[in-house]
Design a protein that fits this description.
It contains 31 helices and no strands. By secondary structure, the chain is mainly alpha-helical. Among the domains are: 75 residues, Tetratricopeptide repeat domain (Serine Threonine Protein Phosphatase 5, Tetratricopeptide repeat); 100 residues; 226 residues, Alpha Horseshoe (Serine Threonine Protein Phosphatase 5, Tetratricopeptide repeat). The longest helix is centred in the middle third of the chain and has 35 residues. The termini are far apart. Keywords: TPR repeat. Pfam families: TPR_16.
Length: 638
């Protein structure tokens, strides 16, 4: 059958075959644009804004860079996880080259450098990160400097390590570890003074701890500032009593102190007192709170006659021991046995210090006495007697001072006090009592109290019957009392003992007119008196040896003799202002004191009282007169 062709059928067939075919309108529009394009080429000036936005390509370069940087960062992180730190550094560096403003890349690279112990590069990376974020990484950077400094310190590169620790301390000033490490570096480099200066500045600006005190104590010891070292150790123990470093350092100081003390003992035993003093000074620097050492140094100062320093040391020794006693009293019952032992030692040292102080006052007084500083000597002896009231030698010495000061009654009181403590036959006391009573007898004679004068002269003769001047004075006093027999007896005694006395001729003429000295001495009465006098003197001499002191006086010691191996505990004799030899010479000089007294009173008739019962205006007579006031002119020699 013939099939007729329909145009509409052809059109429908084309649409069915080419379903994506454009419409005629679209074709026309395309032709129009093509014609314009052919006319103006590739110009886009005629495009609409929407068309322009549609045809503007995206900035694909930035995206690519970011993507590549992120990829490098991921690779670096993976490498870090695999401990491939060098590869990680390379990856992070590539990322930084692509994105130099990415902070995290610097931080990651710094950590990779840190794992490689490349502290310098790690610090540089953190510095660059700090530029992007100021102050964000200062603590981490300080820690890196600390690690760098520690590594340099282990390599003995002390100055380089100091620089690293200083940077760390600047970044983190509140961290003490960094400052301590700086001090350690200076110390290791031998710059102890700089190290100590830095540490002092740090400790004054903050709250010091026990460890810091220990560190400074070690620096002081390096600089041979032992005393300051000890003070810092004690301060450390006060803050932390269980600090092991401070305890060990304190033990070392005590051992060094004991070694120096033993050397000082050796030097003292050999008589090298200045060298011993140097050694005990070293011992005290290592242990300045030990009262035994202060006691030792006080004794050395006394023996070197530096009495002021000796008194200071002995007083300090006593004070330190008293403080220790107070601490021991507060100890718990659990340590009572040990505390008892320590307290026993405490009492021993305290007593020793007190007795040594008495000796020092006495020796100082003896020195002042030798320089005629009698008032100062008396004051020192007053202090000594306040400390120790049972030392006879102290009263003897003070009596000598009062005697030289013309305080006769005070001198007599001290001599009598010494007589009660010593043997009545002791020459040190007898000679002094004789002189004082003779002097007081002269005062009584000048006052016209002749019987009292006779009594005083009689006591003087009792204590020392071998002095002709005493018999002369009593003879003159008897003449004033018209007791001619007693006056003649005393005159004969004077002739026996002192035939060259200038008063012999006038007294002989008044008591034995018409007779010579030989006639008087050869008479029966003269012979009898001479024999009796010699017997009396012989008896007195046998009991009063002028060349020795009594046994009791010689035993006035500081400590027991069984402790003599330690020079600080050796028995020492109390020094007297006048030793037995000098006393014999001084007695002769003191017997002439009447003239000086008379001169003094004559020039100062209203002088005030210097002792009990001494207020008087003496007459201008020159002493017991040689002219009798009455009685027979003839002498009875029978």
């Amino acid at each position: 059958m013939d099939i007729s062709e329909d145009p509409n059928d052809d059109k429908a067939a084309d649409q069915s075959l080419f379903s994506t075919a454009v419409s005629e309108e679209q074709l026309d529009e395309a032709r129009r644009k093509t014609s314009i394009k052919q006319l103006f080429g590739s110009s886009k000036i005629f495009l609409t804004p929407a068309e322009k936005r549609q045809q503007k390509p995206e900035l694909q370069g930035n995206v690519i860079i970011q993507n590549r940087a992120a990829e490098h960062s991921r690779n670096g992180t993976k490498a870090m996880g695999r401990f491939q730190y060098e590869k990680a550094v390379i990856c992070f560096t590539k990322g930084i080259n692509l994105l130099p403003e990415q902070t995290q890349l610097y931080v990651s690279r710094a950590e990779a450098f840190l794992q490689l112990c490349d502290f310098q590069s790690a610090a540089a990376s953190y510095k660059q990160a700090g530029i992007l974020l100021p102050g964000a990484f200062s603590r981490r950077l300080a820690f890196i400097y600390y690690l760098q400094g520690q590594s340099l310190l282990d390599q003995s590169l002390f100055l380089e390590a100091l620089e690293a620790f200083s940077k760390a301390a600047e970044l983190k000033p509140d961290c003490r570890v960094y400052k301590v490490r700086s001090v350690v570096c200076l110390s290791a480099a031998g710059r102890y003074s700089d190290s100590l200066k830095l540490l002092n500045h740090w400790m004054t600006s903050g709250n010091p701890t026990a460890d810091l005190y220990v560190l400074r104590a070690r620096l002081h010891r390096r600089l041979q500032q032992t005393l300051r070292c000890y003070q810092d150790v004690k301060a450390a123990l006060a803050l932390n009593p269980s600090c092991p470093a401070a305890g060990l350092l304190l033990q070392q100081l005590h051992e060094a102190s004991e070694a120096s003390r033993l050397k000082a003992v050796d030097k003292t035993l050999t008589g090298q007192l200045p060298q011993a003093l140097c050694m005990i000074n070293v011992a005290l620097e290592n242990n300045p709170q030990d009262p035994r050492l202060h006691l030792f140094r006080g004794i050395l100062y006394r023996r070197l006659q530096d009495f002021t320093a000796a008194i200071e040391e002995l007083v300090q020794a006593a004070e330190l021991r008293e403080e220790e006693e107070e601490e021991e009293d507060e100890e718990e019952v659990a340590g009572q046995s040990k505390a008892t032992d320590r307290k026993s030692e405490s009492v021993s040292v305290l007593q020793e210090a007190e007795l040594q102080l008495v000796l020092t006052y006495n020796d100082f007084a003896v020195q002042c006495f030798s320089r005629r500083l009698y008032s100062e000597a008396a004051l020192l002896l007053n202090k000594a007697i306040e400390e120790e009231k049972n030392q006879a030698g102290l009263y003897l010495n003070r009596g000598d001072c009062f005697f030289q000061l013309c305080d006769w009654c005070f001198a007599l009181a001290d001599y009598r006090q010494a007589e009660e403590m010593l043997s009545p036959e002791d020459p040190a006391v007898r000679l002094r009592l004789a002189v004082v009573h003779n002097t007081l007898g002269c005062f009584r004679f000048q006052d016209g109290r002749f019987q009292e004068a006779v009594d005083m002269f009689s006591v003087a003769i009792h204590y020392n019957p071998a002095v002709g001047r005493y018999y002369e004075s009593r003879s003159k006093a008897f003449r004033k009392l018209l007791d001619w027999n007693s006056a003649r007896d005393d005159f004969i005694c004077m002739l026996v003992l002192d035939p060259n006395n200038q008063e012999v001729p006038p007294m002989l003429m008044n008591l034995f007119p018409g007779y010579s000295v030989s006639d008087v001495l050869s008479s029966p009465k003269g012979e009898a008196i001479r024999v009796q006098l010699m017997d009396t003197i012989q008896t007195w001499s046998s009991s009063s040896d002028p060349h020795r002191l009594s046994e009791k006086l010689q035993q006035i010691n500081l400590t027991n003799e069984n402790q003599s191996e330690d020079p600080t505990r050796a028995g020492e004799e109390l020094k007297l202002c006048l030793n037995p030899e000098d006393l014999q010479i001084t007695v002769k000089n003191l017997l002439q004191v009447e003239s000086a007294v008379r001169s003094l009173v004559h020039n100062h008739p209203a002088s005030h009282q210097t002792g009990p019962g001494l207020t008087r205006n003496l007459p201008e007579s020159t002493g017991p007169t040689s002219n009798p006031t009455g009685g027979n002119s003839a002498a009875d020699l029978s």
